[in-house]
Amino acid sequence: IVGVVLGCNSYEVIDLGVMVSCEKILEEAKKHGVDVIGLSGLITPSLDQMVHVAGEMQREGFDVPLLIGGATTSAKHTAVKIAPAYQHAVVHVQDASRCVGVVERLLSSERSDQFLAENRELQAQLVTSYRQRQAKLLPYDEACRRAFATDWSHAEIEQPDFVGTRT
């Protein structure tokens, strides 16, 4: 859908399809000298692959923006897991209908800096929110000391009238 929307707005899109390896994505990006790389995640395992692609983009010295979208993605996951793997712009696009505006701002010499600053600020807020909501876990020894204890020898547990299956 994103490819169609961008194509209808005069952007050239190189759609590599689904289940494409990181190596193939980056190879094609280099070959075509792309301005932006977009990844779409429709199933949960795609999220880990997106983190991997971001890390490989960093390792290979890419500096183009990375767009993240798709059913399984979220702004918070993008900020907490994907953005830290790549030092350049990583932008979550909530819906295919918004991709044109995002790409226009990213590629605009007048609007890019402000857009990127706003994106960084939003991601910083999301990371802070995520970290504050993390449950404080007890050390294992303390959890064992606080474990539920009962004396089952005095418990009256009734037997069921029937055990098995009925048809």
Question: Any overview of this molecule?
Answer:
This protein is mainly alpha-helical and 167 residues long. The model has no long low-confidence stretch (mean pLDDT 94). It starts with a helix and ends in a 22-residue tail after the last helix. The protein is 46% helix and 7% strand. The protein has a three-stranded parallel beta sheet with strand order 1-2-3, covered by helices on one side. Helix 3 links the parallel strand 1 and strand 2 (66-69). It has helices at residues 2-7, 22-32, 45-59, 75-82, 99-107, 112-133, 140-145; strands at residues 37-40, 66-69, 90-92. The chain has a single domain (2-132), classed as Rossmann fold.
Give the percentage of residues in beta strands.
5-15%
What is the class in the CATH system? Alpha Beta
CATH fold label: Rossmann fold
Number of strands: 3
Low-confidence stretches: none
Q: What is the chain-wise order of helices and strands?
A: HHEHEHEHHH
Structural class: mainly alpha
The structural domain count equals 1
The CATH homology group name = Cobalamin-binding domain
Features:
Rossmann fold, 3-stranded parallel sheet, elongated, mainly alpha
How is the secondary structure organized here?
Elements: H1 2-7, H2 22-32, E1 37-40, H3 45-59, E2 66-69, H4 75-82, E3 90-92, H5 99-107, H6 112-133, H7 140-145
Parallel strand pairs: 1-2, 2-3
Helix pairs in contact: 2-3, 4-6, 5-6
In short:
By secondary structure, the protein is mainly α. It is built from 7 helices and 3 strands, in the order H-H-E-H-E-H-E-H-H-H.
